[in-house]
Amino acid sequence: MNAQLFEVCLRIGDDALISAQRLAEWSAAAPELEEDIALSNIALDQLGVARLMLSYAGEVEGAGRDEDALAYLRDDREFRNCLLVELPNAGPAAGPHAPIDFGVTMARLLFVSTYQLLLYQSLLDSSDERLRDIAAKARKESAYHVDHATQWTIRLGDGTEESHRRMQAAVDDLWPYTHELFTGTAPSGLVPDPASLRAPWLESVTDVLTVSTLTTPPDGWAPSGGRDGRHTEHLSYLLAEMQVLRRAHPGATW
What we know:
- This protein is mainly α.
- It has a single domain (about 5-250), classed as Ferritin.
- The protein has helices at about 5-25, 35-60, 65-70, 85, 100-125, 130-155, 160-180, 200-210, 235-250.
- The longest helix has 29 residues, at about 35-60.
- The chain is globular, with a radius of gyration of 18 Å.
């Protein structure tokens, strides 16, 4: 097994898988019908990337695990997603049953999709052909995700006094978790150095926040650990819901 390539596939695939699960929570709950459909489609885009990456991870591992086994039969310590994507839609300090917050979802979508777009664009130069092929498809979808999040961030940030307050609160709450996106090491030639994506990401996100009349938070406390399997309690609740059917009926097929 190429351990480095396996780890790369898990990190990218798990980010997309957990993002898809969080976005799917808005099905039949979005503020308007068009947005309900839009978020569902973005969730499906993320799920598509997750399937491609986890399928490839299973092939690289060579242990007989397919995309379903990697998605449904791993415990939280085996997941390699960043902490940002697993936080609840109600915000990082909310309990598992707190009401979901649209501003939190849009702030996270802006942060994550901007990062993913930069990552996929960089992967077009990867030494691995399969990663290049996946990135070529995924970057087109990510460009739409960035645009969608940008429009809503501006609409809410530069909207009413209440929407501005809630959008700024969402940005402030999630900002510390963005630093993990740019930490760690990367196999040379396979994927870009995470730190190299920080400057273009910050420039892009800051431009959106400025237009939205929102303040870019200062850097400070920066939680991490997701890439090493050390997660918040929120991932355990998410996996319990996502995996319950497969675990309750092991080996079942349609």
